Automatic annotation (TrEMBL):
It is a multi-pass membrane protein. Belongs to the binding-protein-dependent transport system permease family. FecCD subfamily. CDD domains: TM_ABC_iron-siderophores_like. It comes from Flavimobilis rhizosphaerae. The keyword Amino-acid biosynthesis does not apply. The chain crosses the membrane at residues 22-46, 75-95, 107-128, 134-153, 165-185, 253-275, 295-313, 325-342. It is found in: Cell membrane. This is Iron ABC transporter permease. It holds the Pfam family FecCD. The keyword Cytoplasm does not apply. InterPro entries: ABC_BtuC-like, ABC_transptr_permease_BtuC. Keywords: Cell membrane, Membrane, Transmembrane, Transmembrane helix, Transport. Its main location: membrane.
Length: 349
């Protein structure tokens, strides 16, 4: 009997190691499929371009070809969809892990509301009408809202617990939304400018805007990918995490900074886009299980793929016009999320 116990326990210990090659292979396959989606994205539009011609436009550009010129003009929106989708996928996973709330998304910490309020004030006070101008208002507003939420949740003896963070985020979001509404109903010119940003779009941006926000996205992604062990320990509860030697306050601060950088930059770049940060972590968890060291990179990959596919669908369904990606993600994400939450195993963290 003494020899069978280790044999029975061994499979449980080596099973994660055996899954690692399969999960790594899945990431490689996912990256290849994402590259294919990107090529399809630059080929779809008012002027349809075959995938092979789109690839040639990227690798051997001919300035005299109208097809190649059309493909090159779609590169910025595809790049925006890739980086924003990856950022929102990572941020949603971090939020759900940090708050231990399966409904966590960029709205749970008031980030979308903070960005929206700052953009409205930028339009109302500074008369900003160009996306290059209010992108920084959105970023600062998102960061400020997250700081306020954390300060409010930190009040009291227990500090910023997951429940208090969620409640504080809901309260701050409600207050900021009321402020936005109060400004917009009195200024129709601000409403006309704000509504095009509020719907969420990857069009009308260029690569220089991506480059401006790239440092924030890179730092946020590095912090996110490095926080997998901290989130795994936090999922066991604060007492267990402290018993494992983790500094809970420091872990929350690192994850919070990553969330602010990722969500703030993504929201500033493309506007508030719903359901990506909410649905993607649940889909990734169905593939990888609860291990955040694998869940985080899968969430980045799935988020990028979801936003690229949504952007392509928006151009195909409404051709020769287009639907903004924020509308498409809501239509696509809602039924997927309903199907996921009906399965109790995926709805719990």
């Amino acid at each position: 009997m003494t020899t069978t116990a280790p044999a029975a326990a061994a499979p449980g210990r080596v099973r994660p190691l055996r899954r690692a090659p399969a999960l790594a292979a899945g990431l490689v396959v996912g990256l290849v499929l994402l590259a294919v989606l990107a090529v399809v994205s630059v080929g779809v539009g008012a002027r349809q371009v075959a995938p092979l011609d789109a690839w040639h436009a990227l690798t051997a550009f001919d300035p005299t070809s109208f097809d190649h010129a059309a493909v090159r003009s779609r590169v910025p929106r595809t790049a925006v969809a890739l980086v924003v989708g990856a950022a929102l996928g990572l941020a949603g996973t971090l939020m759900q892990g940090l708050t231990r709330n399966p409904l966590g998304d960029p709205g749970i910490l008031g980030i979308n509301a903070g960005a929206s309020a700052a953009v409205v004030l930028g339009i109302f006070v500074a008369r900003v009408s160009d996306p290059r101008g209010y992108v920084w208002f959105a970023f600062v507003g998102a960061a400020a809202a997250a700081v306020v939420v954390h300060l409010v949740a930190s009040a009291g003896r227990e500090g910023a617990t997951p429940v208090k963070l969620a409640l504080a985020g809901a309260c701050v979001a409600a207050a900021l939304t009321s402020l936005v509404t109060a400004v917009l109903v009195t200024r129709t010119d601000a409403l006309d400018t704000f509504r095009f940003w509020q719907v969420g779009s990857v069009g009308g941006r260029d690569l220089s805007q991506v480059a401006e926000l790239a440092p924030f996205l890179v730092v946020g992604a590095v912090l996110a990918l490095a926080s997998g062990r901290m989130l795994d320990a936090a999922a066991l509860g604060e007492d267990v995490a402290r018993g494992l030697g983790q500094h809970v306050g420091r872990a929350r601060a690192i994850v919070g900074v990553a969330v602010v950088l990722l969500c703030g930059a993504a929201t500033a770049l493309a506007g508030p886009i719903a359901f990506v940060g909410l649905v993607v972590p649940h889909v990734g968890r169905a593939i990888t299980g609860p291990d955040h060291r694998w869940l985080l990179p899968y969430s980045a990959l799935l988020g990028a793929a979801l936003l690229v596919v949504s952007d392509v669908l928006g151009r195909v369904v409404a051709a020769p016009g287009q639907l903004e990606v924020g509308l498409v993600t809501a239509v696509v994400g809602a039924p997927v999320f309903v199907a996921l939450v009906r399965r109790r195993r995926l709805a719990e963290l």
